[in-house]
Amino acid sequence: MSAKPTSPAQLANAEEHRDANPPAARAQLPITLGLLWAAALAFAMLWGNFGAGHSSLPATWGRMGASLVLVVAGVMGWIRWRGTSAARFVTLVAVGMALGTLGDFFNADLLQKIIPLPDPVLGGMASFGLGHIAYIWACFEAARVTGLRNQFARNVSVIAWLLVATIGWYVIVYVGASEKTRPLVWPALPYSLLLASTAGFATGLAVQNRHFLLLAIGAALFFLSDMLLAIGLFRGGLPHSTEWVWLTYSPGQMLIVFGALLVCPLLAFAAGKRPSA
Fold it and tell me: FRET pair for 31, CA 20 to 30 Å: which of 9, 72, 168, 206?
């Protein structure tokens, strides 16, 4: 009996018999998209600091472009893994990324004429919240397919992250709210807990299988970016807030998407290695 593949790379090699494209060709598109993402984000940061500022259209669309590239990466992942047991997982991640990008457009005030809201931040919170529901669902799907069902590891990870979120919300949001930001105080609590839940469930997977580590780091960076955003919004400003937020948020999203693509071979073959019911 041949040795069972134990890593995504080995699992991807085991799949070559049903894929007409060689591994190098399959890797070219993710690498290209990763470079495009980095270039768009770098352009936005450089233009924001040395050009017309972060609120200028070139810098804004550079940031939006970085997120749109990650949406394309998610869609390409769905195309690559459709018809396998990884399809639902990568689809949910792609949906989460698309909703996150919608949130970026809300927060950049690019949708106010189309969807007028009392505060565009509310649209961003709703979009990101729905996106994180998709991410959490993806974590449950990954656990189901791979059999990573250690409830102790999952529950401890989730509870720890929820405690961090609750403390962060109280110190940053509840205590620091002004008259202007007070309407956002209570919506911020479930939103923060939702982001922390994503980090918790992803951490629970990573504790059980190291191949989910990038996904967990990405979710943690996303949560950190939200805390930094809250500091700027509720505590009277954060120096270089755009840089701090986007250099945690966008890499966080990138690691979630590309981390998900990395473990797709694991999911695609896990079900086939398990005995049928």
Answer: 206
pLDDT of residue 276: 33
Q: Is residue 222 part of a domain?
A: yes
Rounded-to-integer distance, Cα 82 and Cα 76, Å? 10
Q: Which residue has the tokens 């070139």?
A: 58
Query: For the chain, what is the domain count?
Result: 1
Does 17 reside within a domain? no
In a domain, 98, yes or no: yes
In angstroms, the CA 11 to CA 200 distance is 26
**At residue 79, what are phi and psi to the nearest 5 degrees?**
-65, -40
Q: What are phi and psi of 253, to 5 degrees?
A: -60, -40
Distances (CA, A) of 16 to 23, 83, 166: 8, 15, 47
Q: Would you say residue 233 lies in a domain? A: yes
**Cα–Cα distance, 168 to 174 (Å, whole number):** 9
Who contacts 235 (Cβ-Cβ below 8 Å, separation ≥6)?
A: 172, 176
Terminus-to-terminus CA distance in the chain, angstroms?
22
Query: For the segment 173-184, what is each residue's pLDDT rounded down to a tens digit?
Result: 999 888 888 888
For 13-61, write each residue's pLDDT tens digit: 545 444 545 555 566 888 999 999 999 999 999 999 998 889 999 999 9
Q: Would you say residue 193 has pLDDT above 50?
A: yes
Q: Residue 267 is part of which domain span? A: 69-271
Please state, in angstroms and rounded to a whole number, the distance separating the CA atoms of residues 134 and 93. Answer: 7
Sign, CA dihedral 78-139-133-130, equals negative
